[in-house]
Amino acid sequence: RNFDYEEIHKGKRIKEEHTDDFTSFVGPAYLSSRNGNFQSSSSSRYRSGKDQIQAAGELPKIPKPEPCKILFEMVAGPPYFFYGSVANLSHESWTKVSQFLYAVEPEFVNTQFFSALIRKEGYAHNLPTEKRFHIHPKSPLSIEEAIPHSKKWWPSWDTRKQLSCINSETSGISQLCDRLGRILVNSQGLLSVEQQTDILHHCRTLNLVWVGHHKLSPMEPEYLEQILGYPLHYTQDAEWSLADRLQSLKHSFQTDTLGYHLSVLKSMYPGGLRLLSLYCGIGSGVVSIESSPVKQNILKKWWQNTEQTGELVQIEDIQKVSSKKLEHLINRFGGFDLIVCQNPTGNTSKISKLDAEDGDCIAGFDFTSFYEFVRILQRVRNTMGRNG
C-alpha cells in the first residue's frame, strides 16, 4: 500500500494557496512537469552564504521567474528523485552532485520564508516546479511565535526575530548563561555597547533565549521541533541525550520548506506515493535506509502514531541493498514514485581518512554515501524503465 503523503507529519494538512517562488538556482534550471510540458522557474547566480542568508527581518526581494532550459526526456519523468542538504556545501561539492545527477543544477532556498530559522538548504531534483503550495498549519515564522511567553523578558536591544542557526553544543552552556546573567544584574540592565554586542553574539551562535528577568537559557529541543515542523517530543528517546537530540535536529530538514517543494506531488499521487528514502534520519517512509537504530525507532513510532497506511520497510545497511534486493523491492511495491536522499552530514565523522585523502569528502560532503544514492537511483530508474 502507498505512503500517505498528506500525513507527512502529524497535524499538517495540505492547503493550496498562491505564493511566489522562494528559490534560486546555481544557473539555469532543468526542471519539468510530469506531462512533458517544461516549465520555467526563478533563477539567479550562485551567491556566497553571507549573501544568500539575509539578516532576520531583512527579507530579500523574490526574483521573478525567468526562462529555463529543457531537461532531457530521460530525466523528466518518474520515478522522481530529490537530493537535499542542510549543510553549507561548497560550490565544488554541488558541482559534483550535478555531474552525477543527470546535470540537474541545484536549487537553493532560505528556510526563513517558511519558519523561524534562517538557513540555506540546497536541493537537486527533477520535480515539477509549477503549482507549489504551502502545507498547513504553518510553523512559527518568528522566535516570538514559537515562544510567546519570552516576549515579556525580551530586551529591546535584542533585535533577533529568527534563529540564525541550530546549536548542538551543550558543554559549558549553563555556566555561560550564569555569567551573562551576572553581567546583566550587575549592570542593572544598563549595558555598554561592548557588553550588548558580546551577549548578542552568544545568543545568536548558541540559540539562547530569554526565560526570565536578566536570565538566558538555551532553546529546548521541543521548541526546535516546533520551528522545524516536527511533532512535539518527536526526537525524544530513552537512548538519546540532549546533545543527541540537538545534533539530530540540527541536521534535519525544515519540513515546511521541504513540503513546499514536494507539494506538487499531491495532485499527481492523490492516493499516496511509494517512497524510497536514504539517509533521511528522523524523517522518511515506506522503504527507509537508515543506519541509526534510534532514528529507525523514531520513524517507526511516528509511523504508528500517525496511523500511516501501508507497510514500512526499514533497512540498516545501504551497502547490502544489491541490485537483486532492489528488484525485489520494486516488484513488491510495484516500483517507486520518489527517491529521496539527504546528505548524511551527521555521518561525516565516520568517513575514513582514505576517503578524505582521495577527495571523496569535501567540506561536509560525503561522496561515498552520495555515490550509493546514485547507484540505487540509477538501478531503480533503469529497472522501472525496462518494466514500463
Automatic annotation (TrEMBL):
Q: Is Iron-sulfur among the key words of this record?
A: no
Specify where it is mainly localized: nucleus
One GO term in the molecular function aspect is: methyltransferase activity
Show the InterPro entries listed in the entry: C5-Methyltransferase (IPR050390), SAM-dependent_MTases_sf (IPR029063), SAM_MeTfrase_DRM (IPR030380)
Q: Where is the signal peptide?
A: none
The UniProt record lists the SAM-dependent MTase DRM-type domain at 67-387
**Highest taxon of source:** Eukaryota
Which terms in the GO cellular component ontology are assigned?
nucleus
* Example of a GO biological process term: methylation
Stored Gene3D superfamilies: Vaccinia Virus protein VP39
Keywords assigned by UniProt, alphabetized:
DNA-binding, Methyltransferase, Nucleus, Repeat, S-adenosyl-L-methionine, Transferase
Q: Where in the cell is it found?
A: Nucleus
By what name is this protein known? SAM-dependent MTase DRM-type domain-containing protein
